[in-house]
Design a protein that fits this description.
Layout: E1 6-11, H1 15-27, E2 32-38, H2 42-52, E3 55-57, H3 60-65, E4 71-74, H4 81-90, E5 95-98, H5 106-119, E6 123-125, H6 133-139, H7 145-148, E7 151-158, H8 161-168, H9 185-198, H10 204-209, E8 217-223, E9 229-236, E10 239-247, E11 254-260, E12 264-269, E13 281-286, E14 290-293, H11 300-313, H12 321-341, E15 348-350
Parallel strand pairs: 1-2, 1-4, 2-3, 4-5, 5-6, 7-10
Antiparallel strand pairs: 7-11, 8-9, 8-15, 9-10, 11-12, 12-13, 13-14
């Protein structure tokens, strides 16, 4: 007898839900069933729910009260993540998967920690690269690279999200994009903070894996290139870190993570978020060997949902919430320090840490 499917309730029916999670859950139809979709836009909630034969609502409470919704997926705007995660925990759900970031400040993070401790409900953050089979294969083979790496690089070059979203599905009610003046100091700071917490955050847990001493963070420079993106140089615990992201109208995309030591280096090439093209490919190189790991059939999104299924079935240990909060604190610290260095007249500034 095959195991039963597990009901999923979704909070927020925007492009990430439509173009990433619904296709992933459809591919795992023998494991999950979307049973309830919530969005503050009633027409959007109804439209998305109709695609999967689910109930729809504009009420968070209605999803949380639905006993069929064993798992809650939080895909709402960032500012609502923490309160909805806490509410799902206190509603007695069997697992909560929250898109990045888990919260927007450490006060909210404290609320999540308390709710998790009170309820025992397992929480997963949608940092899909930490679940990617190519990345996990590398972690099992890199030996002492964490201790010996001196340079870490994350580089993300992507066309605008709508281009990928349109490849994946017909997106209903896409939010309008408003042009902003990156030369305005306050706007530039908001852009940097948004880019770190919206894009760089995907790989910051990977960076932190190589930087156990996250308290020793120095942001050396920050640049806001035209028309969109970020370039941040920092040092963490004596390691040089380079974070680069850009949005272009050209092809092709590139998403790479590198860790470089004196005797061994790692390069991981990830598939773009909206492309279900299997796992990353990791390459470990030394003077006398080059080892290629992957690609594997499943991508990080599928792997994270399979992990959620194991949590619900009691066959996997919950993640340590303290580690998730540490990832969040690391990202918030970098975002705040980088934003403080931005000079609106040039789009960049080098200086001492904030």
């Amino acid at each position: 007898m095959s195991p039963p499917t597990h009901g999923v309730g979704i909070l927020g029916a925007g492009p990430v839900t439509q173009a990433i999670h619904l296709p992933t859950l459809a591919a795992l139809g023998d494991t999950f069933e979307v049973v309830h979709v919530m969005d503050v836009d009633a027409r959007l909630a109804e439209s998305v729910a109709r695609r999967v034969g689910a109930a729809w609502t504009t009420s968070v409470e209605a999803v949380l009260a639905d006993e069929r919704a064993e798992v809650v997926l939080v895909c709402s705007p960032h500012r609502f993540h923490a309160e909805q995660v806490v509410a799902a925990c206190r509603a007695g759900k069997r697992a909560v998967l929250c898109e990045k970031p888990l919260a927007v400040d450490l006060g909210q993070a404290g609320d999540i920690t308390a709710a998790s401790a009170e309820t025992g409900v397992p929480i997963v953050v949608g940092a899909m690269h930490t679940f990617d089979p190519g990345w996990l294969a590398a972690t099992a083979r890199w030996g002492d690279l964490v201790e010996t790496a001196h340079t870490i690089r994350s580089s993300i070059v992507l066309p605008p999200n709508p281009r990928f979203e349109d490849f994946s599905t017909e997106v209903a009610s896409r939010p309008a994009r408003v042009a902003r003046d990156r030369h305005d100091p306050e706007v530039a700071a908001e852009i940097v903070r948004g880019e770190v917490m919206g894009l760089a955050v995907h790989d910051l847990p990977l960076v932190r894996a190589f930087c156990p001493d996250q308290a020793d963070v120095e942001v050396l420079s920050c640049h806001v290139p035209a028309p969109h993106g970020y370039l941040i140089d920092l040092r963490v615990g004596g390691r040089d870190i380079q974070l680069h992201g850009s949005h272009t109208d050209s092809w092709e995309p590139g998403w790479t993570f590198e860790a470089i030591g004196d005797d061994l280096s790692l390069r991981v090439d990830f598939t773009p978020s909206y492309v279900p093209a299997g796992s990353a490919t990791a390459v470990l190189r030394s003077a006398d060997r080059s080892e290629v790991l992957g690609p594997h059939p499943a991508n990080g999104y599928e792997a994270e949902w399979r992990f959620v299924a194991d949590l619900v079935r009691g066959t996997a240990d919950p993640l340590d919430v303290r580690g998730l909060i540490d990832d969040l604190a690391f990202a918030l610290d970098i975002a705040d320090r980088a934003a403080a260095l931005v000079d609106g007249s040039t789009g960049s500034r080098a200086g001492a840490p904030a």
